[in-house]
Design a protein that fits this description.
single chain, alpha/beta, Rossmann fold, 5-stranded mixed beta sheet, 5 strands, about 25% strand
Length: about 140
């Protein structure tokens, strides 16, 4: 089956904020239960990402990941790739969330919990926009 959109979450829920992508993936599954959207738990650290990307038949793909850079914690970063030679894939969007804490523990840090709904809403609107592009 060809999907309009695939969303892949990569993260380790045992390391506080490193698991936020998996939590977001689960929340988004409840919001978008259409057959045209596929949600995939991509594992702990993205080592299998290229294999996943090879196996997914989707026009658009969003990869959610945590990444520690010099950007403000709780902020989203974007990398959009539009492959020129892809047969089916029209767009790949990598969204990284800056973690506040990455200690061992299954709960998100308090600052990230406070921002969670804003992050979820922003990703929700991106998914809606991508699905609208697919139907227009």
């Amino acid at each position: 089956m060809t999907y309009e959109l695939a969303v892949i979450g990569i993260g380790d829920i045992r390391q506080q904020d490193r698991g936020v992508s998996i939590h977001l993936l689960e929340s988004l599954q409840y919001r978008f239960n259409q057959k045209s959207v596929k949600f995939i738990n991509g594992g702990l650290d993205g080592q299998c990402l290229f294999e996943l990307l090879e196996d997914i038949v989707a026009k658009r793909i969003i990869v959610l990941e945590t990444a520690e850079t010099i950007v403000t914690p709780g902020k989203l970063n974007y990398l959009k790739i539009t492959p020129a030679k892809a047969r089916i894939l029209e767009e790949l969007l990598l969204i990284t969330v800056e973690p506040f804490k990455t200690d061992w523990g299954t709960k998100l840090s308090y600052p990230l919990v406070k921002r969670y709904n804003l992050i979820l809403k922003e990703i929700d609107s991106i998914i809606k926009e991508m699905l609208e592009q697919a139907t227009s």
